[in-house]
């Protein structure tokens, strides 16, 4: 009999700010890469229409690097602020969000855009940290509680011999 070790996936908020920075990069790498690829594909297919492979790759890079850079700036900014301040609070996330928003200003080459997006992203990150600290949700709950076989689930049992709930019987006693 073998005992299996189930490893729990690393949660971004499981360690305080300033610790486990490489694991935090690993947590955000997949969703950020997928988002950057999706938005770049939308840009290439629907907006810019580059001609040739090199122009297409250049357009993918032009659209993807700011997204990846903003996510990296958030992780580095919030963790650097946490390690320098030796605190795990909302200000670290505001600094991380502001540094991520500043990447947008650098990308657009516009100071006003950078300031506005940095302020907005900082307030949004501060709000998210507030929700994490108070165990609430900002936009949607982390875990959905959907009953088995509900109307909006993929776990439907359309077979003729499905299990009957409760104490229902087939009438053949």
From TrEMBL:
One of its GO terms (biological process) is mitochondrial electron transport, NADH to ubiquinone. Belongs to the complex I NDUFA11 subunit family. The keyword Membrane applies. Keywords: Membrane, Mitochondrion, Mitochondrion inner membrane, Transmembrane, Transmembrane helix. This is NADH dehydrogenase [ubiquinone] 1 alpha subcomplex subunit 11. The keyword Isomerase does not apply. It comes from the Eukaryota. Coiled coil: none annotated. GO terms for cellular component: mitochondrial inner membrane; respiratory chain complex I.
């Amino acid at each position: 009999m073998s005992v299996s070790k189930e490893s729990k996936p690393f949660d971004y908020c499981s360690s305080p700010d300033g610790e486990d920075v490489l694991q935090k990069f690993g947590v955000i790498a997949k969703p950020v890469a997928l988002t950057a690829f999706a938005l770049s594909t939308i840009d290439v297919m629907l907006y810019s229409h580059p001609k040739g492979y090199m122009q297409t790759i250049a357009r993918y890079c032009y659209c993807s690097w700011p997204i990846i850079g903003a996510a990296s700036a958030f992780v580095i900014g919030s963790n650097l602020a946490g390690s320098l301040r030796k605190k795990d609070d909302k200000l670290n996330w505001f600094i991380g969000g502001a540094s991520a928003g500043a990447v947008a200003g650098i990308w657009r080459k516009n100071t006003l855009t950078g300031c506005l997006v940095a302020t907005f992203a900082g307030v949004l990150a501060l709000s998210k940290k507030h929700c994490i600290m108070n165990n609430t949700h900002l936009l949607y709950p982390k875990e959905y509680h959907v009953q088995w076989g509900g109307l909006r689930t993929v776990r439907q049992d359309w077979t003729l011999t499905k299990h009957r709930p409760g104490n229902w019987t087939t009438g053949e006693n």
